[in-house]
Amino acid sequence: MDAWLWVLVGVLLLLGELLTPGGFFIIFFGIAAVIVGVLVGVGFGGPDWWQWLLFSLLSVGSLLFFRHRLLARFASPDQPLSKGDIVGEEAILLEDLLPGELGKAELRGTTWNARNAGTESLRKGQRYEVQRVNGLTLWIGRK
After folding, report:
1. Which of 42, 55, 81, 132 has the fewest CB atoms lying closer than 10 Å?
2. 140 near 114, Cβ under 8 Å?
C-alpha cells in the first residue's frame, strides 16, 4: 500500500477519534497507520502483508499499553464519584443521629445526606465510616 494512503487513513482515524465520544480507541489505530505510512515513505515498508501485520501489532500493542495511561492523564478531577470510590471513607457527622435517622455529614468538603446505618446513636463532629451509598445518601456507622 502506498505511503500517502497509510497517512491519509491515519489522519482520518485521528479525526474520527476527535469526533466520537469515547475512551481513546481509534487514536491508536490512527497513529499506527501514520507510523506505517512514514515507514513506507522512507523505504522501510516491505510487502503489503508486512505493512498490515505491523499496523496490527502497533495498533493493538499501543492500545493495550497506553490506553489506561491516557485515560488517567485526561481524567477530570471534577469527575463525579462512583459509589465504590467513597465506601470505606470517613465522613464527619454534622448533627447527632439516632439509629435509622437521616441527617447531614461532610465528606471530601461536600455536605451529604447521611443515614445512621447502625443500632447506636452517632454524635455530631465524630468521624464515621461510609458503609454504602444509596443515591445521594451516605449510610454511615462505626467501623
Report:
1. 42
2. yes
Task: Please list, in sequence order, all residues whose beta carbon lies within 8 angstroms of the beta carbon of residue 23, skipping any fewer than 6 positions away.
Answer: 67, 71
Cβ burial 24-35 (10 Å sphere, 16+ → b, else e): bebbbbbbbbbb
CA distance 103 to 64: 45
Put simply, whether the predicted model's pTM sits higher than 0.85 gets the answer: no
pLDDT digits (tens, 9 = 90+) for 43-93: 888 899 999 999 999 999 999 998 888 877 776 555 555 666 788 899 999
**Inter-axis angle of helices 48-74 and 26-41, nearest 10:** 140
Largest pairwise CA distance in the chain = 77
Q: What is the C-alpha separation between 8 and 14, in angstroms, rounded?
A: 10
How far, in Å, are 77, 78, 104 from residue 82 at the CA level? 13, 12, 19
Task: Give 130's strand partners.
Answer: 140
